[in-house]
Amino acid sequence: MNKTFYLETFGCQMNVVDSERIVSLLDGIGYSQVEDPKQATLILMNTCSIRDKAVRKAYGHLGRFKPLKEKNPSLIIGLGGCIAQQEGGESLFDTFPYLDLVFGTHNVHRLPELVQKVEQDRVRCEETEFLDMETRLRLFPSRTGDETVSRFVTVMQGCDNFCSYCVVPYVRGREISRPSQEILAEVEDLAAQGVREVTLIGQNVNSYGTQQSGEISFPELLTRVDAVEGIKRIRFTTSHPKDISPELVACFGTLPKLCKHLHLPVQSGSSSILQAMNRGYSREQYLKLVTQLRATCPDIRLTTDIIVGFPGETEEDFAATMSLLEQVRYAEIYSFLFSPRQGTGAAKLVDETPATVKSERFDRMLKLQDEITRQIWQADVGQTYPVLVEGESKVGEGQMFGRTTWNRIVNFSGSEDLVGQLVDVQITKAHRNSQLGELVK
Ligand code: SAH
Ligand code: SF4
Ligand code: F3S
Description:
Layout: E1 4-9, H1 13-28, E2 32-33, E3 42-47, H2 52-64, H3 66-71, E4 76-81, H4 82-95, E5 101-103, H5 111-121, E6 125-127, H6 133-139, E7 150-154, E8 156-157, H7 168-172, E9 176-177, H8 180-192, E10 197-201, H9 218-226, E11 233-237, H10 246-254, E12 261-263, H11 271-276, H12 283-296, E13 301-308, H13 315-328, E14 332-337, H14 355-378, E15 384-392, E16 399-403, E17 409-413, E18 422-430, E19 434-439
Helix pairs in contact: 13-14
Bound molecules: S-adenosyl-L-homocysteine, iron/sulfur cluster and FE3-S4 cluster.
């Protein structure tokens, strides 16, 4: 019988990269990927546990596979990623009797062996041990390019920041930086295969290199990536404000390939909430950083993450977040209602704010930001900007899409031979999440 797998990926860039690895590992043991779970002999979910909603969503999807298993008992169902790491096999096998395989965030490389064990012995398998640093250093997946113009490159894994609300340090383990020679070799390889944009990823890329003695700093790494021939654009995410050095700020003024966009999660505009979140900066320090970034690169655009309804958030604290949004004028925000995560510090805090008050604050914030976002992208109309063309657009035939330096998608009429090129596009219309434009000949 043909071996086929169906893979669902939730969560952040780390999981996207892990899933790419899963695809290539399964390919190595004779599995081909299918888009319909009904056609699969193996179903895998790569999950996220950042908020309760993400967990419920994953469990909801998992439940849909139960009838498939009932119809076909030889179907193998596996769950990996951050929920697997958080919950472990025992409890997951208990809750989901039709689950065969549980693999943690440090064990993706073991997947072929685990899948084969389930296949041969028809036993349930779990692997959720964290690995030691030395082993992890050896295991940073090295990837090669394919048809895509833009790719993620992992520069670090894990997180040591322990923001009081966050589960990531518990499900991804300690921070570790990938050797810079390996990163640069990967970027060179990707460039040679036609990749034109790289996004350096990690939970906190600004602290790159600080854990390993003799490693170069993040600004130095950016400088070296900037020198790689064939690469036209560089992005990185995610940044922790407390770890942005003056050298990193300077990169936005000196590195020609570095995009003028920075995702700089603030979480709250209130210094006392920031302190309760263990973020390591105050409102004032954050705003000073924004000023420095804009002095260095006047047309930089910022995006951010905000948590509404952190335990103890008063109306005054919330007003501070609103005023920060007005002051910074982010191009986009990603906002979340606080979700208590088991094992984190903030889950133990008294939380007296009623859910209705929280959701009312949330709506007020979205309304304010929607208007700011609209104004910022609307002001581009009539302007001409370089767009890196990524491929055919979903909006219709003969339509291509690419991104401006600010990471906004622009759709325009063009031909496929433009893919991978930087072309000038005049913006003609701004939608909520994308823009329309015309190719400037
Ligand atoms: N490492 C990144 C991203 C972490 S997760 C960073 O430090 O910015 C992405 C976002 O999810 C966070 O920035 C935060 O805004 C949100 N988040 C994390 N834990 C949360 C929780 N328990 N409740 C609500 N939002 C949360
Ligand atoms: Fe979570 Fe904070 Fe680490 Fe980001 S920096 S992953 S929010 S603990
Ligand atoms: Fe989610 Fe894990 Fe990423 S919890 S946000 S997939 S590190």
